[in-house]
Structure formats: C-alpha cells, structure tokens
C-alpha cells in the first residue's frame, strides 16, 4: 500500500442510479458516510496500476488530499 498521500490500492464504489459514477477511497482510509446511504454498491479493491477507465491518478491524489475521496465517471470505448 501507499502512504496516506499516495495510495496505491483503492476501494471503489459505484453509484446505483447515476450511470457510471464511481467513488474511489484509499484502501487505508476511512470510508465516507455518504457511501453507506444505500445509493452506492461496493465495487471491490483496485490497484492503481489497474485503475478503471476514467480514473485520473493525479486528480485522484489531489481530491483525496482535499476531500478524502475521488469521484469520477467511468469511460467506455465506443463500439
């Protein structure tokens, strides 16, 4: 695992009703309470090197320093 400033493993949560909205929380950090509202599904742990499409490493690290979590939209390739 990384340091609190640079996590390498993330707990991922997917918003149920909002398409492909995800919340990433460092694996070694407390999970924000809003993720227990029933509106989010746990999506497992993801190493940063295998991040979901749309996850931006530098933005994620800045967001975690400010908020403790990172919200992003999963990007899918057009068929």
Describe this structure as you would to a colleague.
The structure is a single chain. The protein has 1 helix and 4 strands; from the N terminus they run E-E-E-H-E. The protein is 14% helix and 32% strand. The chain has a single domain (9-73), classed as NE1680-like fold. The protein has one helix spanning 57-67, and strands at residues 9-15, 21-26, 40-47, 70-73. The chain starts with 8 loop residues before the first strand and ends in a 6-residue tail after the last strand. A hairpin with a 5-residue loop joins strand 1 and strand 2. With 79 residues, it is of the alpha+beta class. The longest helix has 11 residues, at 57-67. The chain has a 4-stranded antiparallel beta sheet with strand order 3-1-2-4.
Q: Helix count?
A: 1
Low-confidence stretches: none
Helix content: 10-25%
How many beta-strand segments? 4
Radius of gyration: 12 Å
Strand content: 25-35%
Shape: globular
Q: CATH top level? A: Alpha Beta
- CATH topology term: NE1680-like fold
Mean pLDDT: 87
CATH-scheme architecture: Roll
SS-derived structural category: alpha+beta
Spatial arrangement of strands, main beta sheet? 3-1-2-4
Strand-and-helix sequence, N→C? EEEHE
Tally of separate domains = 1
C-alpha end-to-end distance: 35 Å
Main beta-sheet annotation: 4 strands, antiparallel
TL;DR?
The chain has 79 residues and is of the alpha+beta class.
């Amino acid at each position: 695992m990384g340091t609190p400033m640079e996590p390498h493993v993330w707990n991922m949560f997917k918003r149920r009703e909002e398409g492909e909205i995800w919340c990433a929380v460092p694996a070694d950090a407390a999970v924000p309470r809003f993720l227990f509202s029933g509106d989010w599904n746990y999506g497992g742990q993801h190493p940063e090197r295998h991040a979901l499409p749309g996850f931006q490493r530098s933005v994620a690290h800045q967001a975690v320093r400010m908020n403790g979590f990172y919200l992003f939209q999963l990007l899918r390739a057009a068929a």
